[in-house]
Every structure is written in C-alpha cells, then in structure tokens.
Structure to design on (401 residues):
C-alpha cells in the first residue's frame, strides 16, 4: 500500500490490522460501585484509573484510546501494559504479531502519529476499530525495529535527564522564593523588630465567605442578577486568579451587593485538596474587573483595613511556608481539608508600620520578578524538549535515526 511519505529500502507501508492482534473482545467496564479494591490496574483511554481484584488481559499489550483520548503527536494516546490488567470499553487492546512487529515500535509510532483524521463523531470523537485496523504504519524488518527502538530510548534518556535538571532548576527557583520570604518574615511567635507587632488576621481584615448561586439561564428574574463567582479552581498554583475561567452564575441582588469584590481583596481557598496535598490557605489578590465578581462558598474573601495593612504585604505573608504549616495544622483533623473561619481569623500576622510594609513589598516584588524570569526560561526549555522528542520520533519512522 502507499503511505504518506517514501520509506527507506526494505521498509513497507502496511495496515495496522495486518500486523497486529486485536483483543478488544475481552474488554468490559466495571461500574464504580461494583469495583472490589485490589492490585490489578483498571485501564481506560488515558491510562490506569483505578485498581481492582479481577483482570481481562494478561501479557504485554499496547492500549490505544478509543474515545476520550488526546490524538495529537506526542500526546499519550497509547501506553504499554505488562502482566495482568482490566481494560474498559474506552480503549483498544492490541499487540504486534511476534514475527512482524514489536510492541515498543508500535507504541512509539502511535505516540508520534496524528490520528485526528481517523476519528469519527463531532460531540465525542472516536477511533473505531475498523478505522484503527486501517491505520497505515511503516514496517521495517524486526532487527531494524529493535535498532530504532534502542536509538529512540538512548535519545529519550538524554531528554529525560535534561527534563530532570530542568525540574531541579524549577525547585531551586521555588526554594529561592521561600528562602526570601523566610528572610523577610519572622517565625510565628518569635520576637519582633522594634516597631513591629503581632496581630490576629481578623484585626486587619474582615473575613467572609460567598455563595454559589444558580445556573445563569436567560434573563434573571426580579431580585436576581448575574455575577462571576470565583471558585477554588480559579485560584492558580502561582497565587493568581484566572479571570478567564471564572463562571457566570445567577445570584440574589442583595447577595451580589453584599459580596461584590473590590481591588485589594484577597481570595483564600477554604475547602480543597487532601491530607497529602493541602490546598486550603492558597491566596490570591483580586483586581477589579469590568464585570461583577463575588466569592463562592468554598473560598474566603479578605477585605483589608488599608489604614493598618497593605494587601500585597498580607498576600506575601499568607503564601509563606510559615503560614502554610499553620494552615496544615488547622485542617489536620479533617479528611477533606476545611479551613474554619474562626481559626483563620486567629492567624498571627507580623505587622510593621505601613512605610515598612511598602518597603518590604517593593523588595519582594523585585525578587519575584527574578523568580518569574527563571520559571519562564524553564517553561521555554520544556517546550523545546517536547519539540525535540517529536523530532526524534518523526525521524525514527522515516528511517533517519
């Protein structure tokens, strides 16, 4: 058969169904309420989603998303499973015929290939079994496949090492930032410099929670209005608000008036995360937008007393490791971390005079800009590494490695 590009001598284009065994007939879903906890991986379109006590397949297979997957080059549409596993009906189960195709070669080719043109269905695109069988795959001799795999894994190993170093650089930037905060802010309960004093958070800010409202459909009835409601998920890991994701909801006019956010308000995650990863306490500063914004019922809003504290000063303090540890202790008794308002109001704040707060904020702003520059460089490095991975795979299946 003809393929999308010319292959090296000794290679040929074939259809996937010619060189693969397809084991879809054994797959089946397990309803969540019927799953028995176990050690067997339960596999779906994008990987292992749970562990169960039974299995549908045993051996080495390549699992390829039927629907719900990501089908661009480099996206993990396919993954390899060895041993026993349970596969649901959202994933195809295939393996190369031993005398024609190795599973690892198949896996790398699927990762490298854009499958969008083979999908059907507008609402939930799907790769049908017949479409999968017809996928054109370049087939070199088995020994050449093994050589290519070894070369890919050698080069990918170098990419992984570069990514490891990049992750270390990212951690170093985070450590630099927290070390700077530790240098500026004293430990809770420690002796303060002259002019500083320990106060409770509730003394310098009014703390209130919000509402979720109802779905915004059509024109709001009398007494109701539309507002954007800031959720936990809108407060990002970099302690900023993603205004583009904040949903529009319908709320009572009286509630909207009472809860309207203003510039300088600090939004704090009240309930979210897990014991292993506490998100409660994450804080972001609100900046007035053209639309009406209010907090949801899973966050706190802090209305700062500007005569006592500068919002940016409090924001830096609330996101320091000192406060994170205090918050973790406040929510430690809950399975689902939930920060109580009464506890949060008692949070200690080291408060210097306003001019000193402004000086500290200016210093921290300058350091933060340097940290952001480091992280931007790391993000660029990650983009380049992803391109390199794709270049390696693209070259591999054209016989250029």
């Amino acid at each position: 058969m003809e393929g999308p590009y010319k292959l090296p001598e000794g290679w040929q284009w074939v259809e996937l169904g010619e060189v693969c065994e397809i084991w879809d007939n054994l797959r089946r879903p397990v309803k969540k309420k019927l799953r028995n906890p176990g050690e067997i991986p339960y596999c779906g379109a994008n990987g292992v989603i749970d562990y169960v006590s039974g299995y549908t397949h045993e051996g080495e297979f390549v699992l390829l998303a039927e629907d719900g997957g990501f089908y661009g080059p480099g996206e993990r549409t396919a993954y390899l499973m060895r041993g026993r596993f349970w596969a649901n009906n959202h994933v195809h189960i295939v393996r190369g015929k031993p005398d024609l195709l190795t599973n690892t070669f198949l896996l790398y080719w699927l990762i490298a290939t854009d499958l969008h043109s083979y999908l059907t269905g507008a609402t939930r695109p799907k790769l049908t079994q017949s479409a999968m069988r017809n996928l054109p795959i370049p087939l070199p001799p088995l020994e050449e496949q093994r050589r290519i795999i070894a070369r890919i894994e050698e080069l990918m190993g170098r990419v992984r090492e570069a990514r490891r170093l990049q992750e270390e650089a990212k951690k170093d930037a985070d450590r630099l930032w927290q070390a700077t905060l530790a240098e500026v802010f004293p430990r809770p309960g420690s002796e303060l410099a002259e002019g500083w004093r320990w106060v409770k958070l509730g003394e310098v800010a009014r703390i209130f929670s919000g509402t979720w409202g109802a779905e915004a459909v059509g024109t709001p009835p009398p007494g109701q209005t539309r507002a954007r409601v800031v959720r936990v998920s809108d407060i990002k890991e970099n302690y900023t608000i993603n205004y583009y994701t904040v949903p529009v909801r319908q709320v009572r006019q009286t509630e909207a008036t009472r809860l309207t956010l203003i510039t300088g308000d600090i939004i704090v995650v009240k309930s979210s995360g897990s014991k292993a990863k506490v998100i409660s306490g994450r804080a972001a500063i609100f900046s007035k937008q053209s639309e009406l914004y209010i907090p949801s019922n899973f966050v706190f809003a802090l209305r700062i007393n500007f005569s006592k504290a500068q919002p940016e000063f409090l924001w830096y303090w609330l996101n320091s490791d000192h406060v994170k540890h205090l918050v973790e202790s406040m929510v430690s008794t809950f399975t689902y971390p939930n920060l109580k308002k009464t506890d949060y109001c008692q949070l200690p704040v080291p408060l210097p005079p306003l001019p000193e707060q402004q000086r500290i904020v200016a210093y921290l702003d300058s350091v933060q800009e340097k940290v952001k520059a480091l992280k931007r460089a790391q993000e660029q490095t990650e983009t380049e590494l992803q391109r390199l991975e794709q270049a390696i795979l693209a070259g591999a299946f054209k016989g250029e490695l």
